[in-house]
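Course assignment 3, question 2. Fill in each field.
Student: A.L.
Task: Predict the tertiary structure for the chain below.
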Amino acid sequence: MKHTAMKFFQHSYKRLGLLLLMGVFLIQPLACKKKENKYAPPPPPKVTVAPPKVQDVTVYLYMTGRTAAINNVDVVARVRGFLEKIYFKDGDIVKKGQLLFTIDPREYLTALHMAEADLLNAKSSLNFAKNDLDRREKAYRKKAVSELDYLRSKAEYDKAKAAVAAAEAKVEEAKLNLSYTKIHSPISGKASRHLVDVGNLVGASGPTVLTKIVSLNPIYAYFNVNERDVARYLRKVAKEYEGKSREGRLRPKRTVKVELALATEEGYPHVGKLDYVDNRVDPNTGTLQARAVFSNDDFTIVPGFFVKIRIPDRVEKNALLVPERAIGLDQVGRYLYVVGSDNKVERKDIKIGPQLGTMRVVEKGLKKDDRVIIEGILHARPGIKVQPVAPAPEEKPGNSEAKPESGKDKGQNPDQSNKTSKASKS
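Answer field:
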């Protein structure tokens, strides 16, 4: 009986296990069906797009230079003597004709008195010779004296007359030497320190430099222009003056504006004009020296300053500008990402021009109706679809104030790399 009960339980367990196994196989398809997932692609990335800004842009040539005084004078002692007094302070602004130094004048005052005495003596001899000539001339007419006596008297008169002229010249020389004991400023400008102290002997072995004076207003700025820019300018002038006289072509009557900035100044606040151009290009540097003159009423420009120079070269009409940050660079060159009509990203290889603040001129490769990606460039790749959005009002291209910034692609701006490019609103 025990054996029968055991068989019953074993048979029941097998039936229960079979039922559980069937339940698992029936439930599994339903469970799998609930967990099934379909792939959903991510939404297109958002990028900010804007058309290029269209405006006229003035292109400049950029150079560096040095300022120089128009007049640079060494004040020297022209006569020998002891320095008696100094009438200015080191570094003073002096005016033309202002007294600067005096040399002990007693020696030259004595020489003047001696020369004046010699002149009186010569005049006395002249009067005697004149009276003697008149007397002998009357006697000669009456045949009372020989012709030889008359001619000798006339020669004595001429000699006395020459002696008076020589004595007068000696007086003038003495007056001139006496005037040299007072040394005046030959120009208006800024004086350096005095180079000789009071009490020293000056002019003993030649002219002694006492101080130096440089003029400050106006002031020169010398700079060098690249020979390619010179050649382009000459071609432009030749076209403008085609058919005119030879003289008009060689010396065109035009004023070339030149702008200057000191190393510590923003922008180019000083405006002058081209004053001189050298007659040949330096073969060692490939540059042509030029000079501009600037007003310096406040004396802020000092001779010898390093300065930045720019000259308007040309105006590009309806130039296309894009934000500098939108331009990419790789081994092929510079490029922009634009969004096509199907909202797909396209790459456009471009040629850039001068820079205007945070904007850059695009000379080739871009159209004015292109939608340029200016934000979200890292999410853009050629061929992918994107979701273009308009920029916020403060992000629209061209809203930023135009400020000169250096670039390295066009023009000559030695402000940083000496080969950078800029532009300004015309």
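Instructor remarks: The longest helix spans residues 106-141. The helical segments are 2-35, 106-141, 147-179, 227-240, 246-250.
Grade: pending
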